[in-house]
């Protein structure tokens, strides 16, 4: 039998790396709900667990799958993507410096600007597609983390992972990446030089819109990783056992779901290109997309299930389209098996840089012909 690392990631996730319940032989590992573990008369613990805030066996099984499919040395699961993200930055101290993207998931950008900066960490937000600007923002010795997100929510702007990793490393910083939209099915950032990969596991990794979770995967088990692990424990940010179990179940179909969503998103993007009521289609799988060439280098097997449309007629026209859609649910979030539509400017509120005519689509695994017909009827009437 081949070693797990030699198997395709579809094989690894479908079998959860072959994890079974050793005690009973059950094919599916049980959910461990215990918060505490009983010591023997000699006051020794029977295993490595003592309490569920530092770790949990069910969560560890899911972490092993994630580390394997991202090609990392370790993984940690958190109560949300936000908890995973902030745990990286909580390792910094006043006087340190961060370079982050102008275009990234808004709530995390807001946290950097409102909370991390207030703790005395310096911050530069740059256009990550402009490598000269990235290099110019680096403060060697002071810049500790360069953060990227690719494709970036909600314009799906693509960042060259290898090029930015090189700039970060030359200045002595690490490269962290939010790879939620790409998933390890399409991009494995560690292979391109990233040091820490983050996911809102709430999205594709779980895939069923019923678990809030976050993940970090590390290229190396180094001192920084030990500090992040310690912070998860001392801040009480770990994922619960039930959620870990549901996540493990969702992960089994990750590859099928992401491949189908990517195929359908590509078909929808091509269909909407040139539509009389659509002024722009934002999707890295389109040949004319500014990020297409880089996306082809670092994404394989598709360009993801996320795309955005800019609707002719502005905000009111875009909102009217959402009102007419019947299959795309009007809901925030992404990466579930069901398709969603979102008017990002409404969610982000005043000051949002997202154009008011932009609709974000999270393409699910429904029959693509049905989704296209739904979009056609919603876009047709104005
Ligand atoms: C790209 C991206 N990163 C991070 C997050 C935050 O994840 P969570 O909601 O699990 O905290 C989200 C949530 O929408 C996201 O879309």
Topology overview:
Blueprint: H1 9-14, H2 57-70, E1 74-78, H3 81-89, E2 97-101, H4 106-116, E3 122-126, H5 131-137, E4 143-149, H6 161-170, E5 174-178, H7 183-186, E6 196-200, E7 214-218, H8 223-235, H9 241-251, H10 254-272, E8 278-282, H11 292-298, E9 306-311, H12 314-324, E10 329-330, E11 340-342, H13 344-348, E12 358-362, H14 368-380
Parallel strand pairs: 2-3, 2-4, 4-5, 5-6, 10-11
Antiparallel strand pairs: 1-7, 6-7, 8-9, 9-12, 11-12
Bound molecules: pyridoxal-5'-phosphate (PLP).
| Contiguous runs where pLDDT drops below 50 for at least 5 residues | none
Secondary-structure class: alpha/beta
Rg for CA atoms: 21 Å
Please state the average pLDDT score.
97
- Order of strands, widest sheet: 1-7-6-5-4-2-3
Number of DSSP-assigned strands: 12
Query: Beta-sheet strand percentage?
Result: 15-25%
Overall spatial form: globular
Q: What is the straight-line distance between the termini?
A: 60 Å
Helix content: 25-40%
In DSSP terms, counting alpha (H) and pi (I) runs of 4 or more, how many helices? Answer: 14
Present as ligands are: pyridoxal-5'-phosphate
Largest sheet: 7 strands, mixed
Q: Sketch the topology as an H/E string, one letter per element.
A: HHEHEHEHEHEHEEHHHEHEHEEHEH
């Amino acid at each position: 039998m081949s070693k797990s690392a030699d198997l395709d990631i579809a094989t690894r996730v479908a079998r959860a790396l072959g994890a079974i319940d050793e005690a009973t032989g059950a094919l599916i590992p049980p959910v461990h709900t215990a918060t505490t573990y009983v010591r023997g008369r000699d006051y020794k613990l029977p295993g490595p667990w003592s309490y569920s805030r530092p770790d949990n066996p069910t969560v560890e099984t899911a972490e092993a799958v994630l580390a394997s499919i991202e090609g990392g040395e370790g993984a940690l699961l958190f109560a949300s993507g936000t908890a995973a993200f902030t745990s990286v930055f909580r390792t910094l101290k006043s006087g340190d410096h961060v370079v982050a993207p102008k275009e990234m998931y808004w709530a995390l950008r807001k946290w950097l600007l409102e909370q991390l900066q207030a703790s005395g960490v310096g911050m530069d937000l740059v256009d990550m597609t402009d490598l000269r600007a990235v290099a110019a923002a680096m403060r060697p010795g002071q810049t500790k983390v360069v953060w990227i997100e690719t494709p970036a929510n909600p314009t799906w702007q693509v960042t060259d992972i290898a090029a930015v990793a090189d700039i970060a490393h030359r200045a002595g910083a690490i490269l962290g990446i939010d790879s939620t939209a790409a998933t390890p099915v399409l991009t494995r950032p560690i292979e391109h030089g990233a040091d820490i990969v983050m996911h809102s596991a709430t999205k594709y990794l779980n895939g069923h819109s019923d678990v809030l979770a976050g993940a970090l995967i590390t290229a190396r088990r180094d001192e920084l990783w030990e500090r992040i692990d310690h912070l998860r424990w001392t801040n009480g940010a770990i994922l619960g056992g039930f959620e870990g179990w549901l996540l493990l179940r969702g992960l089994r179909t990750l590859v099928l779901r992401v491949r189908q969503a990517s195929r359908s998103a590509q078909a929808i993007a091509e269909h909407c290109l040139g539509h009389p009521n659509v002024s722009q289609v934002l999707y890295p799988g389109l040949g004319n997309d500014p990020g297409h060439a880089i996306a082809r280098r670092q994404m394989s097997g598709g360009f993801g299930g996320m795309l955005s449309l800019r609707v002719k007629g502005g905000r009111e026209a875009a909102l009217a389209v959402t009102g007419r859609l019947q299959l795309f649910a009007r809901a925030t979030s992404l990466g579930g098996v069901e398709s969603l539509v979102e008017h990002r400017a409404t969610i982000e509120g005043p000051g949002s840089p997202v154009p008011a005519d932009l609709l974000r689509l999270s393409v699910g695994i429904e029959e693509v012909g049905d989704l296209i017909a739904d979009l056609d009827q919603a876009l047709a009437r104005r």
